[in-house]
Every structure is written in C-alpha cells, then in structure tokens.
C-alpha cells in the first residue's frame, strides 16, 4: 500500500465553523507533513510530525491546529478561518531520518502526497 | 526569498523530443533534490530524486542532473509523451532537526507535449 488518503475531498466552511481534515497512511512512515497550496503557487510547508511529535511549525497561525494521534493518522483542526485560508491542503508522509540512517541510505526519502482537500472559507 | 526557482513557467515540446526542465537553488544546506509531477486538484506525484553526493540519476525516460557548484539541477524526459503534460515541481530537502527535514518547492514549470 503506497497510498496517502485524505478526507474530505472538498470542504466549504464559514468563518465561525470548526472542522477537521484527516490524513492516513499505512506505509509505516513515521514522518508526516501538512502543506498548503494556493492557486498557481508551489506547496508551502505548514507542519512536520516525526514519531508522532511536532517537529516543525512554519509559523502557522493558531487557527490551524495539527494533531497526530498515532503513527498512521494526521489531523488538521480548523477554527475561525479567514477567506484567504482557502486553498488545497496536502498531506504527505515519508520515512523518517532515523529509519533512513538505520537503512543506510538517503536515496529514497521521497515524500508521498495525498490527493489533497480543497478548502473554501466563506 | 525564493530559495528554489524554476525560471521557465511553461515549456512546449513536440512528442518524441527531449524535454529539459531547469531548477536553481540558493541554500547550500539542501542535501536531497526531488522532482514531482502535478495535475490540477491532485497531490504531487514523485518522479525521481537525487542525493547531493551524486551528479546524475536515471530512471527510465527520466534523468536528473545535479551541478552542485552551480546550484543547478535539471530534469530530462526522453522521449516526451503527451501524458507527460503537467506541472513539474522541483523540490529541495534540508535537515532541520535530528529527526525531521523539510521540502522547499520551486515555482513550477508547466510542460505541454504536443503531437
């Protein structure tokens, strides 16, 4: 299974709503990521989890709250978003650096991406 | 400050010919480089990668070249096929903590392969 799944595929929410995005992988990857992609722009990193612990937060506003309940799941909780937060939200996973060191190589550290959630904030 | 740049926003190539997509970077801490292909409203699909200790990696029709001194990499697709038409992103990895690394994506090049 080399798939990263994301739900929902589309989400429309108001500025006062609370919603969550979900991401799941069963590749045994211990690093998971959230990216945000606006139209005609590259994906921008938001958060990195390594071994279920938050390792990187790219100064993301607190209205985005990530959660990694176990090694296969990654959530992004949304609250009081703004219309400018409308974007494609992508989840990705990869082998962790520790796994790579144990495996003795760096040549296969690609991140596998899910299909994304298209979020519209009204 | 765009650390990874793809200076050609679009490229049109005839079927069967070579497509060459270029990418430049500024951060010397990047240690691993990847190319992704992306269709609209889908997640990026991994194509090929190269470690900073190598200068070439080949996988079927796809070859990536890395010139560390010039901080430049390129993706060659030979022969190009209509199904290759998509947006191609170059991405560069740097280690941030002992257990985590991050990818920085370039701005993307839209490849159109014509019949």
Structure commentary:
The complex is a heterodimer of chains A (122) and B (115). By secondary structure, chain A is mainly beta. Chain A contains one helix and eleven strands. Chain A is globular. Chain B has 115 residues and is mainly β. In chain B, 0% of the residues lie in helices and 57% in strands. Chain B contains no helices and eleven strands. In chain B, strands 2, 4, 5, 9, 10 and 11 form a six-stranded mixed beta sheet that branches. Chain A binds chain B through residues 4, 6, 31, 33, 41-45, 48, 50-51, 55-56, 58, 88, 90, 92, 96-98, 106-116, 118, and chain B through 31-32, 34, 36, 41-46, 49, 51, 89, 93, 95-108.
How would you summarize the topology of this molecule?
The complex is a heterodimer of chains A (122) and B (115).
Chain A: E1 4-7, E2 10-13, E3 18-25, E4 31-37, E5 44-50, E6 53-57, E7 64-70, E8 73-79, E9 87-94, H1 97-103, E10 112-113, E11 117-121
Parallel strand pairs in A: 2-11
Antiparallel strand pairs in A: 1-3, 3-8, 4-5, 4-9, 5-6, 7-8, 9-10, 9-11
Chain B: E1 4-5, E2 10-14, E3 19-25, E4 32-38, E5 45-51, E6 56-59, E7 62-67, E8 72-77, E9 86-95, E10 101-105, E11 109-114
Parallel strand pairs in B: 2-11
Antiparallel strand pairs in B: 1-3, 3-8, 4-5, 4-9, 6-7, 7-8, 9-10, 9-11
